[in-house]
Amino acid sequence: MITKTVGPKYVSIFKSWVPTMVAWGSTGTVALIHFTDWRVILDYVPYINGKFKKDD
Predict the structure, then answer these.
(1) pLDDT of the chain, 56 residues: tens digit per residue
(2) Pfam families from the xrefs (predicted)?
(3) Residue 53 near residue 40 (C-beta atoms within 8 A)
């Protein structure tokens, strides 16, 4: 259905850009975690969340 709407040329161009977009997205995510308060973000990761329990 998408091929009929957009065209096969643009679908093939998009498929060739997918690895690049994944790489930039991963790099951006790692940079976001690195430059922000990493603990706030990593508290939502189940395995890592248990390692940093606060003793209140």
Answers:
(1) 767 788 888 889 999 999 999 999 999 998 988 888 777 777 777 776 666 666 55
(2) UCR_6-4kD (PF08997)
(3) no
Where residue 3 falls (left for φ over 0; alpha for ψ -120 to 50; beta otherwise) is alpha
Amino acid, single-letter form, for residue 54: K
The pLDDT, as a whole number, for residue 54 is 67
Structure-token pair, residue 30: 């790692």
> What does the chain come to in residues?
56
- Single out the residue of 17, 45, 41, 16 nearest to residue 29, CA to CA: 41
